[in-house]
Amino acid sequence: MKRVDFKERGLIALAILRELEKGPVHGYALMTRFEEMYGFKPSPGAIYPVLKRLTDMGFIDVEVRSEDGRRIKVYSITEEGRLFLSERREALARLEEFANNMRLAKTYGFTRLVRDIMWLFRNIGKVPRDKLEEISLDARTLSDKIEKLRSVE
To answer: What pLDDT, in 10s, does the model give residues 27-49?
Structure first.
């Protein structure tokens, strides 16, 4: 078995292999499945390099097909990829927990909140001070409520 270092994008690699266990799929469909499973749609720049690496490692095969006049690559898991997955049940359990948490977060609107907060961090210098003052009270209130939840653990 090849030595694998999945520190970078490790969960994405496991998630890809996990999805390919369900059957062959092309890259765009894989990104759509991610959105359904994890509540976010990774960019092609996050998916395709990992697909290439998994192919190079022998964990997945790629077949080039013609569909509606377009050339597409369809990916499928190999036996070596299945073996690799079977040896990582603990990591797969963490992936499943992450997927469940992402679905819950999306259900309650928290993925949108995180996206909006990230936008605010990137653009805070452009936001009028009076608008920042307006939402800062809500931010403090929400932060206090979350802090109370942390103490429940």
So the answer is: 889 988 888 877 777 888 889 99
- Distance between CA atoms of residues 46 and 41, nearest Å: 10
d(CA 38, CA 32): 10
Tokens of 34: 């991610």
Tokens of 150: 């942390």
Tokens matching residue 120: 């605010």
Q: What percentage of the chain reaches a pLDDT higher than 90?
A: 50
Spatial CB neighbours of 105, under 8 Å, sequence gap ≥ 6: 39, 111, 114
β partners of residue 63? 74
Both tokens of 139, joined, read 């931010």
Long-range CB contacts for residues 83-91, cutoff 8 Å, separation at least 24: 83/1, 84/1, 84/4, 84/17, 84/59, 85/14, 85/17, 85/18, 85/21, 87/1, 88/14, 91/10, 91/11, 91/14
